Amino acid sequence: MTLPNGPALSPLQQRIRTWKFILSPLSAIEERYSEYGDVFRTNTNSLFPFIYFCNPKAIQQIFTADPDIFGLGGSNGVLGHFVGENSLLLLDGDRHRQQRKLLMPPFHGDRMRSYGDLIYKITSDVISQWEIDKPFPIRKSTQEISLKVILGAVFGLNQGERYEKLRLLMSDVLDSMSSPLSSIFLFFRFLQKDWGSWSPWGRFLRKKQELHELTLAEIATAKKEGNHRDDILSLLLEARDETGNPMSDEEIKDELLTMLMAGHETTASALAWALYWIDKIPSVREKLRAELATLPNNSDKVAITKLPYLNAVCQETLRIYPIVTNAFPRVVQKPIEIMGYQLEPGMVAIVSIYLTHHREDIYPEPKQFKPERFLERQFSPYEYLPFGGGSRRCIGSAFALFEMKLVLATILSQYELKLVSNRLIKPVRRGVTMAPPGNMRMVVKQKFRE
Description:
The chain is of the alpha+beta class and 450 residues long. The protein is built from 17 helices and 12 strands.
C-alpha cells in the first residue's frame, strides 16, 4: 500500500506545520490522525519522512523487528543537548545492548525497594512546608520531590554544598529550555548560536558544561570513598562487561546525567497530573483514601505499591497524558513492510504513544479519566506503552512507578489538596516532554496528622 501523503506543501505551509508540531504537538497529530487514520506521514516534502503508527499490530511489528532493521541514525539528536554522546538514549546496536545490560542492576526490584524509605522521607519533608489555605504551584513541589529523590538515589546526596550545587544546576539546565517558547531552541539549529552567556543558547551551554563537570567531580569523589556508599553511582563504578572491563568516567557521567534528566522531569510531571485528576474527580480521591485506609500502617512500602486502585490511578495518569508522546524514533536501515506499508531505508518510524492511548476501540471514552479500566482488563505492551517498548523501553519504568505510588500515598495520607481553579487543564510542551502548566496551583485544605 502507498503511504498516506496528502498534498504537497509550500515552504510556508511546511514551516507553519512544523511550528504547530513544536508548540501544539497533541492537536497537530490528532488532526493528522482524524484525516488519515492509523498511519500517516509528516514532513511530507522530505525524502525521509516520519511515518506515524498507532495501531497495536503495527506497533508489535516495529517493537519485535530484527534489531538490524531499525537504528537511531541521529533521530534522537535533540536529546543530545541534555546528555552526552555515551548516553544509552543515543547508543545503537551492540553498544546499546551491552550498555543496557550494565545499567539494569540498579533498577532491579530488590534493589529498588531499598529506596522506599528515601522516597517517603523526602516527600514528607517537602510537604511539611505546605501551609493551610495558601495556594502554591503543585509542579514546583513534585519537581522538588523527584529531584531530591533522584539525587539521593544516584549520588547518595541529600544535603551539603555538593548537593546544593547539583540541585541548582539541574534545575537551571532544565528550566532554561522548559517553556513552550524556549523549547524551539531544541528543534532549530539556526537558533543554536553561542553569542555568550547573555544569549539563551550560550547560557544553556555554560550551565550544561558546569553540570557535566560537577558530575565528573562526583565520580572522582565516589572512587576515593570506595565501597562505603550505597547509590547508583557506586554500582556503575563496580559494573563490568563480559570481558571484565569497567565503564569509563565519560560513559558513567553520561548515563548519570540521563538518569537525572529522565528520572526527574518525567516523574515530576506525572505526579502533578495524578494530583490534578485525584482532585478533579472526587470519587477517585475517595476510593484511593479508602484503599490506603486498609493498610495497618504506611511503613510497609511494598504493600503500598501493590494496592490495585493506586496502581490503576498511576496507569491511567500515564495513559491519558503520557509525558513522552512518542516512543523512540526508529530509522529504517533495511526495507520492511509494516501493516502492508513498505518502509524504505532512511524513513523514520514513529510509534505514537498518545494516539495509541486514545484509541476508542481500546479505551472507550479515551478523554475521560477512568482508573477502573485498568482493573477490568489487561492491556498488551502494544496497547499501553507509556515507557515505550521493545529494546528501547525505559529501563527506569519500575522505579518511576514505585516512586509515583509512594509519593501519592504519602501525600494523600497526610493532606487534602484542592485545585485553586476548576478549569480544564491541557498539557503544554516542556522541553522534549509534555507536562501540566507550571502555574497550575493547588491549596491544602486539611492536614490529617503531624
